[in-house]
Design goal:
228 residues, Rossmann fold, 12 strands
Length: 228
């Protein structure tokens, strides 16, 4: 079965470019030209991945991302932001809302395809984790259900935050370089901006409450989940 990708973009030239190259790679593509239609299609079609422009008529991409990531039914849909803005703050806001990645305009179709393939591979790679549950003192991670609890209180994480947490806990006590995290969690090589990890780590720490101090930053290298 073909994987479904929803493109929410109001520039017809970009839409046609993305649609052509994605379909050439074997994906099933649907399109929405404004924010309201994009949100409705995402909720109804439940695509495998959403390519989402930030600057849209009727509803912004950030608002769409906020709604989708705030709903348990659509929270797991991976979101790649498409933006013409160069300011880092726009990407950070998107990440804080739960977006998985961004591609800055102008972009090459090859770059978009590489990001799409990497994210979909990460999402569908069922052989990535061996155990069904990890328990670390007050922290409990149910892998198949993608649930995280601290002292029996559920912690809501985005898909990327969950995978990042899981990777660090599985490698407890061992330093994980940014490059290794990019490869394992995002599926990218070292050419990708490693600030992406720092943004997600900051958000993860904020959500982990009393366990935040166990996530150690190794300056200039990466991160480590400390032994108790």
């Amino acid at each position: 079965m073909k994987q479904k990708i929803l493109v929410v973009e109001d520039d017809p030239d970009i839409v046609n470019l993305l649609k052509y190259h994605l379909e050439e790679e074997g994906y099933k593509v649907s399109v929405a030209e404004d924010g309201q239609k994009g949100l409705k299609k995402a909720q109804e079609e439940m695509p495998d991945l959403l390519l989402l422009d930030l600057m849209l008529p009727k509803m912004s991409g950030l608002d769409i991302c906020r709604i989708l990531k705030g709903d348990k039914a659509t929270r797991s849909i991976p979101v790649v932001m498409l933006t013409a803005k160069s300011e880092e703050v726009d990407r950070i806001v998107g990440f804080e809302l739960g977006a998985d990645d961004y591609v800055a305009k102008p972009f090459s179709p090859r770059e978009v395809l590489l990001r799409v393939k990497a994210i979909l591979k990460r999402v569908t790679d069922s052989g990535l984790y061996e155990k069904e549950e990890l328990i670390e003192d007050s922290l409990k991670i149910n892998i198949p259900r993608r649930e995280v609890k601290i002292k029996n209180k559920e912690i809501v994480l985005t898909k990327t935050e969950f995978n990042l947490l899981l990777c660090l806990v599985q490698e407890k006590g061992r330093v994980q370089t940014r490059e290794k995290l990019l490869d394992r969690v995002w599926g990218y090589d070292t050419e990708v901006d490693t600030r992406t990890i720092d943004t997600h780590m900051r958000r993860l720490r904020e959500k982990m409450g009393p366990l935040a101090e166990r996530f150690e930053t190794i300056r200039g290298v990466g991160y480590r989940f400390l032994e108790e």
